[in-house]
Design brief:
Layout (H helix, E strand, L loop, with lengths): L1 H28 L2 E2 L6 E6 L10 E4 L2 E3 L3 E3 L4 H7 L1 H8 L16 E5 L5 E6 L2 E7 L3
Parallel strand pairs: 1-4
Antiparallel strand pairs: 2-6, 3-4, 5-8, 6-7, 7-8
Helix pairs in contact: 2-3
Length: 134
């Protein structure tokens, strides 16, 4: 009787473990990453990037990789208007300067379909980021 009960609980545990890992695999493989064709309306980002895979969840199932960098602005423009944004994007201690994922939330982000420019609005400044994958 006890052996059967122990085997039953082990079987239930194995079943739920397999179920959890299967769902996690399906969720990770069904992500849509922002590309040229992708478009979305302004979304308020209030959360940080996922440190495990360096992606930002825009909204389900749309995610953003480290592909987008700040377009060429005169650095005096950023320093004059917002030194916080300049520190987040262009500081010497940041390994990947100008990357969109360096901006700390909260901010608004949006993109038009069939366009390679992402727009971010933070501290009254609209910044444009473009994909480095051509």
């Amino acid at each position: 009787m006890k052996k059967g009960l122990i085997l039953y609980y082990i079987g239930v545990f194995v079943f739920f473990t397999i179920l959890i890992f299967s769902v996690r695999h399906i969720v990770n493989t069904t992500r849509t990453f922002v590309s040229f064709e992708t478009g979305f309306n302004p979304v308020m980002i209030r959360w940080d990037i996922d440190k495990n895979d360096s992606t930002l969840r825009i909204k389900e199932p749309i995610f953003l990789r480290k592909d987008y960098h700040l377009i060429k602005y005169d650095n005096k423009f950023l320093v004059k208007n917002d030194s916080i944004l300049f520190a987040e994007l262009e500081n010497d201690s940041i390994p990947d300067k100008g990357n969109l994922l360096n901006i700390k939330p909260p901010y608004y982000i949006w993109k038009e379909a069939n366009n390679d420019t992402l727009k971010v609005f933070k501290h009254g400044v609209t910044l444009k980021f473009t994909s480095n994958l051509k």
